[in-house]
Amino acid sequence: MVEFDPQAPNLARMYDYMLGGDDNTAVDREVTDRLAALFPQAVPLARINREFLQRAVRYLAQAEVGQFLDLGSGLPTGGHVHEVAPGARVVYVDHDPVVATRARDLLEESGRAVLVQADLFDAGEVLERASAYLDLDRPVGVVLASVLHFVPDSADPQRMVARLRDALAPGSHLVITHATSVGRLSPEDAAKVISRGPSAAGADRTPAGIRTFFGDFALVEPGLVNAPDWRPDRPRLVGEPSTSSYLLAGVGAKR
Fold this sequence. Notes:
The chain is α/β, with parallel strands linked by helices.
């Protein structure tokens, strides 16, 4: 059991607050508000990221993908995968013990969704744990939403993602969002996007570098694009702010 510290902010609860949820504390809200004052794009980006995820999950559900593996999921709140595709089996993976403890309560009644506490960059462990709930011989939708830009190249995330791709059955899909500052942000703002704090490592990859995470998976139209432009629910309005012009999103399919 994780000891609850009401004075310690938690990133997953802060993200829940950004999404308009109520699974957060006063200190989470205070720290998030300070972050938003310094970096006003933070909250809009969180919501744009979640909106893309929901569109991608709906797309995969319509393509008869009935299983999802969400890596670095955070709290399963705010219209997360199991709520968008209630008939699907969902395995959330997160290393945060606060998330793991709270998720057990949140998912208790779902019947088809679980969270496993694991190192999401240990592909062998993730696949082994997921196989207890998912049939890896059938198509799976693997989600890496706003995760990979927190991982430096020195940690070799390419190898981890390739291991996941190789283990998936034909018909599986890979869903990715990744920040990039190329041609969009000042170096100072780029640092804010790719790091969770002054001591955190991250990687500011080019669109071409992000594309390599899909390997030989075929990108679903419209390809790797600004997150709001991936199969939007409505046409973009003339003059609509492009807050997320540096959050790229794509879905790849294994043929």
